[in-house]
Specification:
Largest sheet: 2 strands, antiparallel
Oligomer: single chain
Distance between the termini: 25 Å
Strand content: under 5%
Strand order of the largest sheet: 1-2
Number of helices: 17
Shape: globular
């Protein structure tokens, strides 16, 4: 598949980006007048404080960073790691989003400045992915689907770390997976990775990916910058893992009671097929839990609350592409991409495997999901084009 050779206003990239911008502006404008209720029935709009992005948690973290001395935060970490039961009384968010709350003075009655900033961020994310996939030869129809992904529209108006992490991941991926990977591109990709590390815990997964990819998969050679970058990534993995492990522990613990197709995770661990031999019961139960979490992860799940059925359907439809996208990536020949996706998804599967946590990689899952269907349909004999006679 080669990129189209059109130019100017008719270029697929320009058309798709114009649609992406229009969709995001329309979402911001319409929800300002008619807010969308979230799963708790709270209004989501640029004029309302974000209801479902753990806003109170980030506000507490903002106060910790700005009001309390650093020694108090360090003492909280020390208490966690010295406690036998690992009960952590003080979970601290990564600093970037709490600092944005302070910079924009985000609060009830003053939400619009930061809301507009997030509309701009969403447009930038759309541009990065659209440009990347146009260069990969994606047709206009694929670019338009990417421009209208509902999760990105939702997190445009429901501000939080989700869209910020998607921005840094898009920058990291488009730079790091550029071939060949020059020293300049590597440096900029690591800067994007640093932004991710200051936003969400999955930045540690990206750190580990860079280390493993550079050590075992990349063939570009070892320039001084590559060696120093690898050393820096190795040194950064430790402290960031220490910082985020309490967050991960709390995430796993707080979501352990969530159900997957009606059964809590604990039931899967204990076995949900008691009539079978114990070893087979556990093997099938654990396998069923992994499959169930993967299905939930791509959004093919019911709502945990009384969300409107139409909204649930719109949220779930991309999962019909995301799940095959994971399969297509796993059977591809791109070992670096496979490693990236596995490391990104693995920590999410430990807790609440919800589609919101896949937001940064959803453009990849969409693209490869479409590749999956193209390959499958092309393999069906009755759908192949017959040669002209």
């Amino acid at each position: 598949m080669s990129p189209p050779h059109t130019s100017g206003l008719l270029r697929p990239l320009v058309i798709a980006f114009a649609v992406a911008v229009a969709v995001r502006l329309a979402a911001a404008l319409l929800t300002s007048f008619w807010p969308i209720p979230n799963e708790q029935g709270l209004p989501v709009s640029p004029l309302d404080p974000a209801p479902s992005s753990d806003l109170s948690f980030y506000e507490r973290s903002k106060d910790l960073y700005l009001v309390h001395p650093l020694t108090q935060i360090l003492e909280g970490f020390a208490n966690f790691y010295s406690a036998k039961d690992l009960q952590y009384p003080l979970i601290v968010a990564a600093p970037l989003f709490p600092m944005l709350l302070a910079v924009f003075d985000y609060r009830s009655g003053n939400t619009l400045p930061m809301a507009l900033f997030f509309v701009a961020v969403s447009c930038v994310v759309a541009w990065i992915w659209l440009r990347h996939f146009e260069r990969s030869g994606a047709p206009l129809s694929w670019l338009l689907m990417l421009a209208c992904l509902p999760h990105f529209v939702w997190f445009t108006v429901n501000v939080g770390t989700d869209l910020l992490s998607a921005l840094f991941f898009a920058a990291f991926f488009s730079l790091y997976f550029n071939k060949p990977l020059s020293d300049r591109l590597l440096l900029w990709s690591l800067i994007a990775l640093a932004g991710y590390l200051l936003t969400r815990p999955n930045g540690v997964s990206l750190l580990i990916f860079v280390v493993l990819d550079q050590l075992f998969l990349r063939k570009e050679g070892g320039s001084p910058l590559v060696r120093y970058s690898l050393l820096g990534a190795l040194l950064a993995t430790g402290p960031f893992s220490v910082f985020y492990f309490p967050y991960l522990s709390s995430f796993v613990d707080s979501t352990s009671k969530l159900t997957f197709f009606g059964a809590p995770a604990a039931e899967y661990y204990n076995g949900v097929f008691p009539d079978l031999p114990r070893w087979m019961d556990l093997f099938l139960s654990w396998s069923a839990l992994v499959v169930s979490k993967l299905i939930y992860l791509v959004g093919l799940r019911p709502s945990y609350a009384g969300t409107n059925d139409l909204i649930v359907l719109v949220r779930a439809l991309p999962g019909l592409l995301f799940l095959p996208g994971i399969i297509q990536i796993m059977v591809s020949k791109d070992r670096s991409l496979q490693l990236l996706i596995v490391l990104f998804i693995a920590p999410i599967l430990l807790g609440a495997a919800q589609d919101r946590y896949t937001l940064p990689i959803q453009p990849l899952l969409l693209y490869y999901g479409l590749e999956f269907y193209k390959n499958v349909l092309g393999a069906l004999p009755w759908l192949r084009k017959k040669p002209a006679t």
